[in-house]
Write a structure and sequence with these properties.
Number of helices: 13
Number of strands: 16
Strand order of the largest sheet: 6-5-4-11-12-14-13
Length: 406
C-alpha cells in the first residue's frame, strides 16, 4: 500500500524534514539529497567538509564536536524553526478537567472516536493534514455538527480541549472522557510527565545564555507530554528526559505515576449511548493492539457496527524485546482486521485500513479512498486505485501486508 502519487512527494519531504529535525516541509527540499551525492569530508581541524543539510563547504570550528555534521547557518535555522514551533507558543497553568464535555448520543453513530488525544493533533482542533484527511471519510455534512468522542488518560491534555469546546461559537457534539482504553476494564497506572513541569522549566530557562539550550529543553518536554503510557514507561521517555536534564543542568526526576481507569471499546460507546463510530483513530503509546482486539471482540458479537476507517500507530518495534525490529502483535492484529474484511491502504509509522463492505456500498467513501491512496504491485510496481474489482471483491487473503495486491 502506498500513498496517491499526488501526495507521495509531499510525504517524502515530510519524512526527510523529520529526519533532519526540521518542522516544515518547505525546509525538507534541501536536505533530502541521496547520500551518494555528498562529497567526502575531512574531519581534522583546519580542514574543510560538507554540511549534510545545505551541502556547503565548512571549516572545522574550535569548540565544535568533530562529528558535527551541520554548519552554523543550518544550526541557526533549525533553532529558529524549533523556537517558533515550541518556545514561542504561550503556555498556561495546566487546566483541570471538569467533566463538562460529556454527551449522550441517543443511539446514533459518532463520526470519530479518537483514543489518545495528545497535543499534536486532535479532531477538536484538526490542524494536522493527516487528521483533516481522516475526517473527510466520515459522513458528516455541512448542516450537522461533528459527533466525536475523545479519550485520554492525562488531565492536562483534556482540560484545554474542554475549554476550547466551551468557548466555541459553534454547536458542539463532542464528548471528552478522562481515562485510558484497553482490552479489559479495571484500574491501572499511567506514567507521564509531572504536572506543570514544562511551564516551570521554561521560566527557569529564561535567563539561560544559550537559546539552543532553551529550545532543546522546551522541545523535548513537549515530546514528553505526548509519551504517557499505561503500565510502564514509554521506551523513548528516559532518552528525552536525559536530554532535558543535561541541557537544563538539573537532576530532577520528571516522571510521575497516576492511577487511571481503563475502559474497553464497548465501555466507551455504551457510556455515551453510541451505536458505533465511523472513523477510529488510536495513538495509545503501546496499547493500540489491545484496544483493537477489544474493538474486534465487541463488533464480532454484534454490539456495534464495524468502523469504516481505522488508523493506529505501527511503531511496535519500540516495544519489542526480541530485537529483530518486527512486532508480531501488530502483524497479528493487522491479519485479524484483514480477516474481517479490512483493506490495508497505507502502512508507515501508522496503518490506515478501510472496511471493504462500507467501501463497496458507499460511493462517497470510495471516492475518498481513491483521492488519497493507491496500491502498488509487489512485482511490477504498477500503481492501481484502491477501488478496483480485483481488490475490493477479493475473497482470499495473501501472505504479508496489502490484502488483494498482486
Amino acid at each position: 500500500p502506498v500513498l496517491h502519487p499526488l501526495h507521495q512527494a509531499q510525504h517524502a519531504q515530510a519524512r526527510a524534514a523529520r529526519a533532519h529535525g526540521l518542522s516544515s516541509m518547505k525546509d525538507a527540499s534541501f536536505c533530502a539529497a541521496p547520500t551518494s551525492a555528498r562529497r567526502p569530508r575531512s574531519t581534522g581541524f583546519g580542514g574543510t567538509r560538507q554540511c549534510e543539510c545545505c551541502w556547503k563547504p565548512m571549516k572545522a570550528r574550535k569548540g565544535a564536536s568533530s562529528w558535527d555534521p551541520y554548519c552554523k547557518g543550518c544550526w541557526r535555522r533549525w533553532c529558529d524553526e524549533k523556537k517558533a514551533e515550541f518556545l514561542d507558543l504561550p503556555l498556561e497553568e495546566p487546566r483541570r478537567y471538569r467533566g463538562r464535555a460529556a454527551r449522550d448520543f441517543s443511539g446514533a453513530k459518532v463520526h470519530v472516536l479518537q483514543i489518545g488525544m495528545g497535543t499534536y493533533g486532535t479532531f477538536v482542533e484538526p490542524t494536522q493534514y493527516w487528521l483533516q484527511i481522516l475526517l473527510e471519510a466520515c459522513s458528516k455534512d455541512c448542516s450537522e455538527s461533528l459527533r466525536g468522542i475523545g479519550v485520554d488518560p492525562v488531565e492536562e491534555t483534556l482540560g484545554p480541549l474542554e475549554q476550547v469546546l466551551a468557548q466555541s461559537q459553534e454547536k458542539s457534539e463532542v464528548s471528552l472522557l478522562f481515562g485510558a482504553a484497553g482490552e479489559t476494564s479495571g484500574e491501572q497506572t499511567v506514567f507521564c510527565l509531572k504536572r506543570g513541569v514544562r511551564l516551570r522549566l521554561r521560566k527557569v530557562m529564561e535567563k539561560h545564555p544559550s537559546e539552543y539550550a532553551r529550545v532543546v529543553v522546551d522541545m523535548h518536554l513537549a515530546y514528553l507530554e505526548n509519551m504517557s503510557a499505561i503500565g510502564g514507561l514509554h521506551p523513548d521517555f528516559k532518552q528525552n528526559e536525559r536530554k532535558v536534564k543535561k541541557s537544563a543542568g538539573i537532576d530532577e526526576c520528571l516522571i510521575e505515576q497516576r492511577p487511571v481507569h481503563i475502559y474497553t471499546f464497548e465501555d466507551i460507546l455504551k457510556m455515551h449511548n453510541a451505536s458505533g463510530c465511523e472513523v477510529l483513530i488510536i495513538d495509545a503509546e503501546g496499547s493500540d493492539c489491545a484496544i483493537l482486539r477489544s474493538m474486534i471482540q465487541s463488533c464480532e458479537r454484534g454490539f456495534f457496527s464495524w468502523p469504516q476507517v481505522i488508523r493506529f500507530e505501527t511503531r511496535g518495534s519500540l516495544y519489542c524485546s526480541n530485537g529483530d525490529g518486527v512486532c508480531e502483535e501488530e502483524e497479528d492484529v493487522l491479519f485479524k482486521l484483514q480477516q474481517h474484511h479490512y483493506l490495508l491502504v497505507e502502512l508507515w509509522g501508522d496503518a490506515t485500513l478501510v472496511h471493504q463492505p462500507a467501501l463497496s456500498a458507499c460511493h462517497r467513501l470510495a471516492a475518498w479512498a481513491d483521492a488519497y491512496f493507491m496500491l502498488r504491485c509487489y512485482v511490477c510496481r504498477w500503481l492501481k486505485f484502491v477501488v478496483i474489482e480485483d481488490f475490493v471483491n477479493v475473497s482470499c487473503i495473501f501472505d504479508g501486508f496489502g490484502r488483494g495486491s498482486r
